[in-house]
Records
---
Amino acid sequence: RAKAMGKGCYAIFDEDMHTMAVQRLDIENELRKGIKHRDFVLYYQPIINLTDQSIIGFESLVRWNHPRKGLVGPDEFIPIAEETGLIVPLGEWVLFESCRQMNDWLQRFPSHQEMLIHVNVSGIQLKQAGFPDRVRTCLQTTGLPSRCLKLEITESMLMSLEDRAVTILDAIRKQHVQIGIDDFGTGYSSLSYLHRFPVDTLKIDRSFVLGLDKNNDNAKIVKAIISLAHALGLNVVAEGIETARHLTMLGSMRCEYGQGYHFSHPLPAHQVAGMLGRA
Ligand code: C2E
Ligand code: MG
Ligand code: MG
Ligand code: MG
């Protein structure tokens, strides 16, 4: 009997697997078309100086403007784009469009000369031969000064690339482009590796920030990450600041920058222009 049940379970499992595989293939094919037709848009979330609440820059976040589903968030397609290699052409577009857009804002709003654009880069993209050269070409083509670009790589991607990452990041930083480690605290960094990565910024994962006011351990962890960053000469951006209380706590911990719904959701480009025009 147990055996029969076991078999039954396998049959259901197989069917689910089949459905999932078909859905994945559909998404993959649609992604291909989407990239061809440029059905993607970038949203921009302000990054704030927590001391004076001024805007120091924006993080670009991609959305898929799907012909039937409407705007689809990155968590639903970035993993598939990474598995299929489609992240390479998609990421290339994201990098180019982010730099073009930031340069446009710098020209139009000259009182905001020191703004940065943070661009998320997948490890798959980063390890492509010639990636540092593509970054250079992108800056030349768009006219964006290299000091205005910061690339974000997740902690787990960095750790999986190990020594290779050091060489690639060195080549990027030679061009005065900055590097931030994204989702810091979730990637099981070996501290002995961390200090060898040539980076400028740690971004504290929002899971720690969201738990700040509820959970005393979270506050200790955030405090420790900020001290670690400062000891290594890095600056810190806290993600996921949703309340005034998060902001106050982070300020008392000497966290210099942050982003989150408390300040602004990610915005389409025209709304950013409105914001910069007023500020
Ligand atoms: P991320 O780089 O860590 O980006 C932060 C995510 O947190 C964004 O989600 C943002 O909308 C969300 N967020 C910002 N403030 C708050 C807040 O106060 N509370 C909460 N709960 N969430 C907040 P989004 O846009 O859905 O992006 C998810 C992830 O997708 C990003 O995480 C990044 O890893 C990836 N991603 C987005 N755009 C790109 C891209 O162009 N290339 C690559 N490779 N990955 C991307
Ligand atoms: Mg990011
Ligand atoms: Mg993050
Ligand atoms: Mg994330």
---
Amino acid sequence: LFVSGDLAAGGEIEADPQQSHYLAHVLRLGEGAELLLFNGRDGEWSATVSAIRKKAVRLCVGGLQRPQPAAAGLIYCFAPLKRERLDYLVQKAVEMGAGVLQPVVTQHTQVPKPGLDRLRANVIEAAEQCGVLAVPDLRETVRLERLLSDWESGRRLIFCDEDAATNNPMAALGAIAERKLALLVGPEGGFSDEERHMLRALPFVTAIPLGPRILRADTAAVAALAVIQTTIGD
Ligand code: SAM
């Protein structure tokens, strides 16, 4: 269960109303039930239910079971999609170990102003479901031009380009010397010719293909994250 506050062995905390309902009425936990807590900062803690009150479940914090792993360094830059597909895309990015989620507005982006609170809740839910302790950081939405003009030196941007010059993503990724990486996947409508031209001209960009077919943006995200994970690692 994700808790936003500090955790300390022997401490007592109160689950928020939504979580209390989930623990008491969905999972039907009773006093003494054991569970695992994480706050996205110091790792995974054991805990037991110490009291089931009308509106809140109180938890007694045990010990640190698993220290917080270093957050993966990969910045996943994505054009926000419509609701369900965006939920899926964010969940897969969390599962696949993205360290930072960066919404990017491009010329054909469908949802230029995604609800970040909802997205943040999805990120935490995905982390709870797949046991990712290092909850990725969700950044404010930026326009593509701004993202590129403020680019962090020493970080390589891997750009999913269905017209990439190479047809071997592994070879293209294998040639990357930088350890700090970012990934950019376009919107359902794709990048404009102007955007592609701009991206291909940048010295810190590596364009990779993801096979001969045009993938949906959320499919491309999973495929690209898998290729990066298997070729380069975290
Ligand atoms: N440009 C596509 C078209 O012609 O309809 C639509 C874009 S595709 C649905 C969404 C994004 O996924 C693309 O901008 C690209 O970043 C990525 N993508 C999809 N298929 C790909 C492929 N075969 N190779 C590399 N990237 C791909």
---
Amino acid sequence: AKAAGGNRYELADADSDARAIARHSLTNCLPAALDNGEFFIEYQPLVRLSDGTVRGAEALVRWLHPAHGVLGPDQFIPLAESTGLIVPLGRWVLEEAARQARSWKSAGQYEGPLRVNVNLSPSQLRYPGLVADTVAVLDDAGLDPTALCLEVTENALIGADEDELRPLRELADLGVDIALDDFGTGYSNLSYLRRLPVSTLKLDRSFTRGMQRAPADPVDVKIVEGIVSLAHTLDLSVTVEGVETGTQADHLRLLGCDTAQGWYYARPGPPERLHTLSLADASS
Ligand code: C2E
Ligand code: CA
Ligand code: CA
Ligand code: CA
């Protein structure tokens, strides 16, 4: 920390030093954490807006750190990403999620199995073994490719050329659904969407916040209306994130959004709970 500059600066520096040390020590224990089985996955249901049924769930990784307790992905995914550990960690998430989805297979009475959504980071996209690994994981789990959705952020794909998109296209050709995550937060131009091998847009939470309570923010309504109409024109399905109230869910259903995810339905939780939720809605 700098000595000069008064208390305020010393405090600020001490603070950022502490953060740097914390980052460093977390980064150092990441590889062992994977070996020691300290990561676990919570699942958050994805609900079809037209009838309220659970269609699947997004896998969200957490780290049960022996000293710090449960850490969220925002605290360690960037570290795993910058050290390359994201590739083995991401493969572990995929394996776990695929096994889990296989065991949900018989849950629910409606058409089709529950699907599982798994997040892919930019380094995983660039990793040359992505397609082979994914195929092997699906094979080992006995999971149909159509029961998997890979979520890729809009920003990870901006500027990607045909070579860089090929792995995703191959996965899409195998039947894996590709979703464009955090849609609307990047600067991809809309005509670019046509070139991407995606079948779902996941609309960022920032667009639906203005609909939590009536009256809805009229600008947000217009924007969502526009995105839904564009998406449906391109034959893409629309999932909305961060649905926290019934008012919001009603609005988004009326606006034609297909699928919703958020605290209004369920917070991320253990995999057994999804089974219970989907059985409950199948029998109601
Ligand atoms: P994301 O993919 O955009 O995931 C949605 C985040 O929103 C999750 O945060 C989820 O818990 C949170 N959320 C869900 N419903 C609501 C709601 O109604 N209101 C609010 N305010 N938040 C809600 P989480 O679990 O902390 O994950 C943060 C990010 O970490 C994810 O954002 C994703 O980008 C990343 N992540 C999580 N798991 C993985 C993983 O296995 N691999 C990679 N590469 N990234 C992951
Ligand atoms: Ca996601
Ligand atoms: Ca998202
Ligand atoms: Ca997000």
---
Amino acid sequence: ETGMFTYDPGYTSTGSCSSAVTYIDGDAGILLHRGYAIEDLAMHCDFTEVAYLLLRGELPTAPKKTEFEKIITYHTMVHEQLHKFYDGFRRDAHPMAVMCGVVGALSAFYHDSIDITDPIQRMIAQHRLVAKMPTIAAWAYKYSQGQPFMYPRNNLTYAENFLHMMFATPCEEYKVSPVLARAMDRILILHADHEQNASTSTVRLAGSSGANPFACIAAGIASLWGPAHGGANEAVLKMLTEIGSPDRVDDFVKKAKDKNDPFRLMGFGHRVYKNYDPRAKIMAATCHEVLDELGIVDEPLLEIAMRLEKIALEDEYFIEKKLYPNVDFYSGIIFRAIGIPTSMFTCLFALARTVGWISQWKEMIEDPDQKIGRPRQLYNGATKRDFLPMDKR
Ligand code: SDX
């Protein structure tokens, strides 16, 4: 008696949804946002342009872009009382724990943007979340360093502002080099949205109950944190450091192929891509650009990563399993070169992905046929049985 009830296929699964935001062809390695190829967006746009596209469905004209940038810029400050939330954390708290807590708390401050039935309030919530994430993330880093929080500057771009809040101090400006600002823009674009991944599905499911947008994004941050998802960029750096030198790569590739060994190559493989993740190609090129700009000629981790990629792409196990580098494989090397600590890597992923999460949330909330998500299950527990009083057990 397996206890298995027959599964009624009539129930509509809420595991899938229709969406017009992002399209992925995993076999061909194609990624489109609102029909535009990620390669074109990453090479020719800045992050606010892509944020506008994801949220509003079209690339902005110059005046529209300027107007949108102004709106976002004037939402980058956070309520002054939010400072106090940081003081409640230990200095060594993981920045993702801080981001989860602070973002969830935003709904306690911004009562004028939590009524999801009001289109104006929904719009304000979208702008606030996109605008405040860099500030919240950078302050998590400053808090961990025991440094004063840096306020956003209205004369800086989205990417420049984040780097400024991360690395400037009241004693010294942080000069953002155009190449680094460009690289940061591109990295944010590459992480902006990715169809129905685990964290986006979490945001949709949370939002389907009518929960406020700040709470939904906090749920997405929690899901992204896992090493199988957004936490992989941090795990890649730990793996490359553990490998330690290019001549040890073969041993680790062997470990990754051993069914009895739980070790997996971080930054490799993908639920959807069975071809090269198009974002990984752009990330690899950006990695070389940033290292060149910073005059870093012998980055050992890059050497190990390139050797690991070469071996894996020629190895029949990885070819047969269709395992390729994904978006997380090179990003950590760039972040480290810029001076961003490993613990902040997933926070960067979260701040970039916020616009994707909130675009998908908006699409769902504005769907007149939207219902609360209610996944079903294949029950494999006990069939009905008679109750046993304590003395009979
Ligand atoms: C992200 O969904 C998204 O879109 C996510 C994301 C986004 O933008 O939101 O793209 C971001 O999360 C990228 C993925 C980051 N995670 C990692 O890099 C962690 C390492 N990768 C793996 O843990 C893994 O590849 C997953 C979790 C990403 C996917 O795992 P699956 O679903 O098991 O992959 P699969 O079914 O395609 O695996 C096929 C086979 C399996 O072996 P068999 O069961 O068939 O024997 O390949 C094996 C896997 O065990 N395999 C790996 C491997 N990844 C899969 N073996 C060694 N090393 C790996 N990295």
